[in-house]
Amino acid sequence: MSTEAKPPAQPEAPLEPGKFGQFLKEHGISTNRLPDSCGVETITISADDLHQALKLLRSSQETKLDLLITVSGVDNNDTIDAVYHLWSYYNNDELVLKVMTPKASIPEGKLPEVPSISNFWSAANWHERETYDLAGVRFTGHPYPRRILNPWDWEGHPLRRDYKQPADDLNSKHRVSFR
Amino acid sequence: MATELVKTEDFRSDDLRTDDLRTDEMIINMGPQHPATHGVLRLILTLDGEKVKHVEPILGHLHRAQEWQGQNRTWFQYQALIDRVDYLSGMFTSWAMARSCEQLDGITVPPRAEYLRVMVAEMNRISSHLLWLGTYLIDLGAMFGFPFYPFREREKLLDLFEEISGQRMMFNYIRIGGVHRDPKAEWFQKVRKFTEEFPQRVDEYEAIVTENPIFLKRTKGVGILKQSVAKDYGVTGPCIRCSGIPLDLRRTKPYSVYPELKFDVITYDKEGDTWDRYMARILEMRQSNEIIKQCLDMIPAGEIMGKKQMAGMRIKAGEGFAAVESPRGIIGCYVTSTGGEKPFRFRWRNPSFCNLSVLSELLVGSPIADIMAIFGSIDVILPDVDR
């Protein structure tokens, strides 16, 4: 393969698991550490392990990551990520947890699927609805999977890279339009 | 004449036609154009008589696609837009963005700029709480002119903001790398004059409101926010501090020059009701006033900007989340940069959005007249919810 000729983008060995990666490893959940985001441990996890990992991180005495800051959807060019920012009410710990779905693995016309955590963490309810609305991640098992900010009959997910704005009087390129 | 009236004991319970009395739940639509919702919020209420059984907030009437704008505008352009996310505390939204970009780019903010940021932010906290105080009393039905007392002080603060940033509400003053303009010496004197007279003004509000029997009746024991519920919903800000968790980023994850300043974090050890949340904001205003005073004494001379402000400004590649403690809670943004002129992804974490989600828990079981008392007390601002 020609890719072997040039050095790969990340030549180093996989990063050592950090505090939370080690904690999850001890409980039998495999994670993959990414480069830290501004000094905060960042790990990826498979969608199947998400429930168990978040329950452990939230309630166990060692971690106590009980403040869900946001759930964000990010359209990286080749993956679609659901990003969970976890903080703690009582200490200064932070963790960024990502569930990455490669775009190649998503069937045509479908949305990437990530299990919803809003059944045991109410804070996630609206964040997941928003992520579904804007970034197009389907949270399976969500109690009320409706759009939250856009109208309910809106088409498309505006924060996707391939999103096309609806052509209406304001943004059509017709010469009489306001733009 | 009173003896001729039918006494209540004349009715026996079997006279009441309980079999035929059909009761039903009623669905009432509250808003979006409701004078007390501080913006455009629609609540679909399911009522059983006077009691609220279910609430469904419908959001998005003020959605302005701020995150979409974030990835389709340059850093420099977007910087000017984000004051509109939460227009009552624009300094904090700017500050959250500035911090997140600075930590990506590795910029060191000059100390004078940090002190100016703390000063204007605390002034903004006071002005935001003052507006809340005025409008909250309107929500409770106090239409007698009280709301204009807090607006008197707010007006002075807005004048001070206008002097340094050119705008009264959408400041665009805190920029990536520092602050935009160095105020003149007279400005500091005006701020000092304000801080000297402000505590007496708060005493005036308290004299009218705090022990007011009507106010106490409307707020004591209403809308109690349980700690477990608040934690479950990710509530932050004064609401969570009134429920017994001392989460204040200025103290727990100190940023800027807050470690050098002396101030109290207002926390209650119980599960607070709406009156506690009122009191916490009053005390917070006094603390903010003290912080401004200290800053006035401690502010050093020197540079105010650590990054050149230009239209083609770039931020180094990477991702990170930074937050500040706004009057409503933790406001933060998660920025992903690829090193280009535009952000790759800009995600906002808005305190109002998270605090509003607890509303359906708080309202269930309370009478319809308390809806606005409770909704007002969590201090939600709808542009911040919808972005």
Describe this structure in words.
- The complex is a heterodimer of chains A (179) and B (387).
- With 179 residues, chain A is of the alpha/beta class.
- Chain A has one domain: NADH:ubiquinone oxidoreductase Nqo5 subunit (Beta Polymerase, domain 2, 2-Layer Sandwich), CATH 3.30.460.80.
- Chain A has three helices and seven strands, in the order H-E-E-H-E-E-E-E-H-E.
- Chain A has helices spanning 19-26, 50-59, 123-135; strands at 32-37, 40-44, 67-75, 79-87, 94-102, 113-115, 138-140.
- In chain A, strands 1-2-5-4-3 form a five-stranded mixed sheet.
- In chain A, strand 1 and strand 2 (40-44) form a beta hairpin.
- The longest helix of chain A has 13 residues, at 123-135.
- The model of chain A is unreliable at 1-8 (pLDDT under 50).
- Chain B is of the alpha+beta class and 387 residues long.
- Chain B has a domain at 65-223 and 277-350: Cytochrome-c3 Hydrogenase, chain B.
- Chain B has helices spanning 66-72, 75-81, 90-105, 111-139, 148-165, 185-209, 213-219, 227-232, 238-242, 249-252, 274-298, 351-356, 359-363, 371-377, 382-386; strands at 26-30, 42-48, 51-58, 174-175, 178-179, 318-326, 329-337, 345-349.
- In chain B, strands 1-2-3 form a three-stranded antiparallel sheet.
- In chain B, strand 6 (318-326) and strand 7 form a beta hairpin.
- Chain B starts with 25 loop residues before the first strand and ends with a helix.
- Chain A binds chain B through residues 37-38, 40, 66-70, 72, 74-75, 83, 85, 89-90, 92, 94, 96, 121-123, 125-126, 130, 134, 147-151, 158-159, and chain B through 59-60, 63, 65, 67-68, 71, 103-104, 231-234, 236, 240, 245, 247, 252-253, 318-323, 330, 332, 334, 336, 345, 347, 349, 353-354, 357, 361, 386-387.
